């Protein structure tokens, strides 16, 4: 079995300002993911002949234009999945009742907007705990895709948060436990603690890393790598039963989409959207040529159940 699932976290631009401890974005860029990126993502998916799994934030769908765009994506055959109600980076630090509200109300909002109740979940910032998994079990979520066992990403995130503090700003982002780095890199049933597999539990579909060094294979690393290195990075995953490529809406945006304020903080914003799409298609083509079939995460979960 050789499956590839391409998922996209539809984090709107204010979330990136919160990561970097900045103020609020201007009105022209505030909704760039729903107003601009979704159309590019759907065009990318159509060109590649592949379905997407879209992780939506429930509160974004209170805006009618955003709800309409998500519904259109569902009608085009893409899967809807849950990225919580408010994208609280501190989800894991909340009381259990509030965690359940963030997850359950997020699913409710997506169902109202699209007519489809999501069966999959991804935590903000890839940060999850045993308590969150317990809530997922209680809410009968079919699969989770939050675990990112990537040393390079973990180190880079820790360093970035340290630099933000040194510069006198406060990031909303939260660092996971380093024990996540010992989690399996392929689908498994999350036990207690969640980084250890068990016979029963929520099915975990980890975010993609390479064999060996567990380098990150996500939208940011692919778009920054450029097409040639994107092919090399993706080839380091060939042979794994599931390649779970996780992107963000910002991976098809650039400074020309009103993101100038992020230029000093986000290197990927400096890459043109044309170059980003070229790199992403290079990764997709590498996997397709290696015999991978493209599926939604729901379909991948069914295959690995």
TrEMBL record:
- Report the superkingdom from the record: Bacteria
- The chain positions of domain NodB homology read 18-216
Protein name in the entry: Polysaccharide deacetylase family protein
